[in-house]
Amino acid sequence: MAKDDKRPYVGVDLGGTNIQAGVVDHNHKVLGTKKVKTGADDGAEAVVDRLARTIEKAIDKANLKKSDVGGVCVGAPGTVDIKKGVVVNATNLRWNDFPLVEALTKQVDLPVTLDNDVNVGTWGEYRVGAAKEFKDVLGIFVGTGIGGGLVLNGELYHGHYFTAGEIGHTVLMPDGPIGRRSLENLASRTNAVNLLINLIRANNPSEVTDITGGDLTDIRSKVLAEAVQRKDALTLQVMRDAAHYVGTSIANTVTLLSLPCVVIGGGLTEAMGEPWMKWVRESFEKLVFPPELRRCKVVAASLGDDAGLVGAALLARDRLSMD
Amino acid sequence: MAKDDKRPYVGVDLGGTNIQAGVVDHNHKVLGTKKVKTGADDGAEAVVDRLARTIEKAIDKANLKKSDVGGVCVGAPGTVDIKKGVVVNATNLRWNDFPLVEALTKQVDLPVTLDNDVNVGTWGEYRVGAAKEFKDVLGIFVGTGIGGGLVLNGELYHGHYFTAGEIGHTVLMPDGPIGRRSLENLASRTNAVNLLINLIRANNPSEVTDITGGDLTDIRSKVLAEAVQRKDALTLQVMRDAAHYVGTSIANTVTLLSLPCVVIGGGLTEAMGEPWMKWVRESFEKLVFPPELRRCKVVAASLGDDAGLVGAALLARDRLSMD
């Protein structure tokens, strides 16, 4: 894959809130970055313009010129038709069938490619991160929501409708009440926080009250991690349950796809660290089938905050240097 | 794929109880078959000898000679290393790491290839059956157990450890009691029958008592289908629950892999027919994500009893005519 191409590429993380662009060299070192507000309310044309300017500023900050750079890959939130270069559906941006590759190529005058943001993060871990020894990988990212990406036979797997990897929406409680059936609704940070708030308001004692000074309106992953470190019984129970559901879904995916490696990332995973990973692995090992699949490596993501940028830049190189 | 090769191929269904061989022509017509007892107790060498003789008899019955035939594919129960041609693990046969391709090639003097029996059945449906318009397919077979096979990007997907497709062992009740967690333990015929027996013995009235003449020791799929036809409330409840779990697991797989087609086969599906399929589809459509994936076709298998033989013969042609 493009081993002779030593040019840097630009990876872009297009989110509902922020646009982040990074120039990444052939040793996957980040040479320069730029971050701006997405401003989705201004409409798609304005966002494309902002994307182009952010890419140009990141190239500036890397002390490079456009002609030094091989191309751009954008990781977009939502369903992406990679063949047409179209964002089929991105709720955060309120985009439907928007031809991003065409529009951005015109604005930025560089080769552009496109994929889903979670796929791009998974690609980064597969190419240079925690999964780099393996050809078949599930990437699962646990934060406010739960997303997933699949590399099968050394390629990103998109599926017929380009929506593959939606592990957060697989059902773990087929007989549960509505809103308590899917992995995301059972194990995301959003769910953990809502559960904790309800439990604390129902007079269950918790260190979370102390850590937040009683303000329960902005409980972040770090608060949860701190409460676990203090061995707060309530938070421990909520987080162990969440880890159990994540471990179950990972077991199901490995059972179905016979995977050698699962990489777990996302804000909650990063904040919680090893106790969380251990609980996830315990449920995984208990439930995967056949038991030989316990050999599958279930590991924490290694690229952290840069996974999106680095993954996108690597995908840009892997796709565009062929052209 | 081997379009110019008009030779017939032999498909073999190697089960724990029976060996069945069939000669199949290039229009996937079965020209001759032969069935014998497997006799796994006699040891692997004896089974290989029996396989060779059964293949030869099927060729005889098709009025052909060995030299007319392009080769053989065996569908084996268990984990198969298709690269090495080895049966890694087959509980029914009590085989571990048995080099079947090498052993059978010597005995039968024809090119031999090998795959898992459920994969072979899925391949048949993909190539000439209910899934023939699609490149990404889940085959799920519901009978005494529940097995699955995956075709992704037009190829059988085996996974790193060659165990892919084990949908029956995915967990739908992470908090359920042991033995009531996996799809197979919630929705196989074995489970439905055990549930019914327990319910009938606990004095719940059921047409099943009438249909079987009170002998509950041998309730087959046809008995369940007949009870459903008679609108027996108890059997309807048990079978609707089973269909709900099957539909949930199918939804999870389609959500994860963004599939355009799922084929459902197996003894229970064949006996139950349309009411069962309708119940499965209802749960599938309710739970799949995103809702656009309701477009995925969830259809009954079309090759019936011949799926194993025809699938294996097609796989033999697709693999061996390249040689």
Task: Please summarize the sheet with the most strands of chain A.
Answer: 5 strands, mixed
Radius of gyration of chain A: 20 Å
Overall average residue pLDDT of chain A = 96
- Which two chains have the most extensive interface, and how many residues on each? A-B, 46 and 46 residues
Oligomeric state of shown chains: homodimer
Give the SSE order of chain A as H and E letters: EEEHEEEEHEHEEEHHHHHEHHEH
Structural class of chain A: alpha/beta
Percentage of helical residues of chain A?
Answer: 40-55%
Distance between the termini of chain A: 12 Å
Query: Which percent range describes the beta-strand content of chain A?
Result: 15-25%
Number of helices of chain A: 11
| E-strand count of chain A | 13
Strand order of the largest sheet of chain A: 3-2-1-4-8
Q: Assign an overall shape of chain A.
A: globular
Poorly predicted runs of chain A = none
Topology:
Two copies of one chain form a homodimer.
Chain A: E1 9-14, E2 18-24, E3 30-37, H1 44-61, E4 72-76, E5 79-81, E6 86-90, E7 95-98, H2 100-108, E8 112-116, H3 117-128, E9 137-142, E10 146-152, E11 155-156, H4 183-187, H5 189-201, H6 207-211, H7 221-229, H8 233-257, E12 261-265, H9 267-272, H10 274-287, E13 297-300, H11 307-320
Parallel strand pairs in A: 1-4, 4-8, 9-12, 12-13
Antiparallel strand pairs in A: 1-2, 2-3, 5-6, 6-7, 9-10, 10-11
Using brief descriptors, characterize the structure shown:
homodimer; 323 residues; alpha/beta; five-stranded mixed β-sheet; 11 helices; 40% helix; 21% strand
